[in-house]
Amino acid sequence: MPLGHRRGAGQYGPCCDTYIDTGDPRGRDIHGGGFCSDSPLVGRQGWCVTLGCTRAQNEDLQELVSRLRAFKKRHPGVPVPYQRVRRPASGANP
């Protein structure tokens, strides 16, 4: 799971630090940012629709990336699993 390698600051959050490539073949990755706020780089911003990615608040994503880097440093070569889970529709039986 490569960390912080993609795109500049803006719609994906702070540059080069907070973009997580999940390896999803359709490019559904984890990132912050969003153009629905005055500044897409602030720690907490509004929730903007993505094209399939998982959007996180910038400060939460920075913490996640920090933890993932620490894990990878302690456990080189151990893959970090990522699985998208679909929640049941509102009112549906789980």
Explain this structure to me?
The chain has 94 residues and is mainly alpha-helical. It has one domain. Helix content is 18%, strand content 4%. It is built from one helix and two strands; from the N terminus they run ββα. The termini are far apart.
Query: How many discrete structural domains?
Result: 1
Number of helices: 1
Q: In which order are the strands of the major sheet placed? A: 1-2
* Biggest pleated-sheet summary: 2 strands, parallel
Overall outline: globular
Question: Mean pLDDT across all residues, rounded?
Answer: 76
Tell me the distance between the termini. Answer: 30 Å
Which stretches are low in confidence, meaning pLDDT under 50 for 5 or more residues running?
none
Q: Got a strand count?
A: 2
Structural class by secondary-structure content: mainly alpha
User: Approximately how much helix is present in the residues?
Assistant: 10-25%
Compact overview of the structure:
This protein is mainly α and 94 residues long.
Which structural traits does this protein have?
mainly alpha, 94 residues, 4% strand, two-stranded parallel sheet, 1 helix
Secondary-structure blueprint of this entry?
Elements: E1 30-31, E2 54-55, H1 58-74
Parallel strand pairs: 1-2
